Amino acid sequence: MLSSIWTAPPNMETGANSVAPAPLVSPWQVYAEAGEPVAVVRVRNLQTTLPIGRDAWGRWNKLQPVLLSSEVSFAQPFTTASDDDSLNNETVHYGNLSKTILSSLELFSQGTKAPAAGAVAATGPASEPTKADGPTTAGILELLWVCMTGRVIDGSRVALPVDQIALLGASQLQSLSLTLHLPKASLLGAGISQTATASFQENPVNNPLRSYSRTLRIHDLHVQALIGINPNEREAKQMIIVNVEIDRFDVAEDIHTELERTIVNAIEASSFGTLEALSTHIAKKILWEFRIGDSPTSMKERNWQVRIRIEKPIAVPLAECPSVEIRMQ
């Protein structure tokens, strides 16, 4: 479980109020269970830099730009807050939300050792197993979640410094989403991101979460591919743009470098006529052939859900691009 992959700093509770973890599901199911939002506060793309995870070349803990976004959906509308034109427990000050997200990262300078990813790499000649001594992407996401809610991402236990009160109370919330985006962590795309999302119960007995999701995204890979059914398209490769989402992402380590390499290799070696066939081919490569380290377990056996969207910018002259999207598990 993700909640076991990071080491708490001094004066942080790590085992209090332990209960059964909420189920890990797709974000679609989380939002369906949460229901239509009635009041939402968002902060998008807070900027900072961290020596986090792996960069575009797979090197551990190099200083990278980081974008942090949060979406807080409240259980009740902004009735009294809007009537009185004041802040109360129906809402949250977006300035405080931003400060909490950024100040949470200071815990790493106070003795928090983030999860070590260990010698984890996809199998194959290009693998470069290297020990990570700094924070992983998942570890940072976990810490931010703890500082905002007081609990780990699956809701199973309290993990907050004993002298600190969580910014958000579970009784306030309908759903919560937190995204960490590394825009420079891809050689051919617009970076990678991880998102944690949870729906909250109205009257929880133990765990305040109804369910939660984790998603890994690889954004806007630009890859040359031989793709198309027209005669001219069989003569030369053309640029396609590929977005990959992994729902039910249950991996603590940073594996996006190997995953990107698997996707790019699959595309460059292919020669399909349709985007439908190519997207299915990529999904199958991930689910059936991709491996983490020496583990024999396939990603299909881990219950991953893979969503592939491919755009073909020059295919239709009078349109920005046609696209095809598939989901497979």
Summarize the structure.
Helix content is about 20%, strand content about 25%. It has about 325 residues and is α+β, with helices and mostly antiparallel strands.
List the topology elements.
Layout: H1 27-34, E1 40-51, E2 63-74, H2 79-84, H3 94-104, H4 137-149, E3 173-182, E4 192-200, E5 209-225, E6 238-247, H5 256-268, H6 275-289, E7 305-311, E8 323-328
Antiparallel strand pairs: 1-2, 2-3, 3-4, 4-5, 5-6, 6-7, 7-8
Helix pairs in contact: 3-4, 5-6
Domain count, please report it: 1
Run of helices and strands = HEEHHHEEEEHHEE
Number of helices: 6
CATH topology: GTP Cyclohydrolase I, domain 2
The rough form would be described as: globular
Architecture per CATH nomenclature, i.e. the level-2 architecture: 2-Layer Sandwich
* Strand order in the largest sheet: 1-2-3-4-5-6-7-8
The average pLDDT score comes to 85
In total, the number of strands is 8
Amino- and carboxy-terminal Cα gap: 20 Å
The biggest beta sheet is recorded as: 8 strands, antiparallel
- Uncertain spans, ≥5 residues at pLDDT below 50? 1-13, 111-129
Fraction of residues in helix: 10-25%
| Beta-strand proportion | 25-35%
Class from secondary-structure proportions:
alpha+beta
CATH H-tier superfamily: GTP cyclohydrolase I, C-terminal domain/NADPH-dependent 7-cyano-7-deazaguanine reductase, N-terminal domain
